[in-house]
Amino acid sequence: MTFGRREVESSINQIYSTNKYAALKLYAHDLVAEDEIDNETAIYQHLSAGNPDHPGKMYVRTIQDSFFVTSRDGNLHRCLVHDLLSNDILSLRYTRSDRKLPEAMLKQILIHLLLALDFLHSECHIIHTGQVVPLTMVYGTLTECQI
Amino acid sequence: MLLGLYPPANLLNVTAAKIRWSARVNCLVSSAALRYPRLPLAKHIRHLLPVVKTSMFSRPRIFLQLRTRVLHKSPLVSSPLMCSAGRVRLHSMSSSATPFEEEREVDFEKFYPMTLGEVINNKYKVVAKLGFGSASTIWCCRNLA
Question: Could you give the ipTM of this predicted complex?
Fold first, then answer.
């Protein structure tokens, strides 16, 4: 059975257009302070309120939903719903035989990264204080920010 | 006489070492495949497969590396034997004989005990595990709404 590129593209478009899949981030019970998670969701909402015409906006992770879940042990867990993203760049590197990204790919990644950073700086007035080394950063997840 | 000289002794040693090494690697690979049967085959994640776009302003390419076997699409009930992933069943119980991923963390019993196929918030059906951090686990879910 062959699986053509067109079908792959249509299935991916389906994922994006219908929000059929999502990534759920389930926090551990009582391990992270509540206000820290509140701060994270506040920043996500601040980011999603940014100028939608900026080309860097689509490279910043957004939040879809946030709620509490009760586990079968009766503990409350915070849950954030995100878009489905891909793996981080480190694992992308490790798919190569020489553990190096080709130059063209690295250029694309850096363009996306700088666009996202520019969106954060000029539109949302947020400074990214995390590690901006693209080896450890997940695509489009600029979450470790402080206002 | 010729047979004694060729191939040289050191070359012979090198090839013998190579053969032994590759045998060991093969052995390791097969044992890893036995230990981690959860890694999905390509046919299981076809519906999540990547797209390559080359435009500068396009969405970045997605390639998903799932950490669990992807749940079959049709059944809505979960069978705990088939879908052991992350924290399963009781909070003190591991999903496998050896601690797996976030189960090696210190406060691992505070993590959410997840079963594949579980429906969260009456909306999100858990399909596979994407990753874990020091205080959270990330799950790939299908939106039922």
Answer: 0.71
Owner of token pair 């013998």 = B16
Of A9, A13, A86, the CB nearest to B64: A86
Q: What is the length of chain A?
A: 147
Residue B98 dihedral angles phi and psi, to the nearest 5°: -100, 145
User: Is the peptide bond between B37 and the residue preceding it cis, with omega within 30 degrees of 0?
Assistant: no
Per-position b or e across A52-82, b if 16+ CB within 10 A of its CB: eebebbbbbbebeebeebebeeebebbbbbb
Least confident of A49-53, B2-6, B21-25: B2-6
Within 11-70 of B, beta carbons closer than 8 Å to A belong to: 46-52, 56-57, 59-65
Q: Is B137 exposed, middle or buried (0-12, 13-18, 19+ CB in 10 A)?
A: buried
Indicate the pTM of the whole model.
0.57
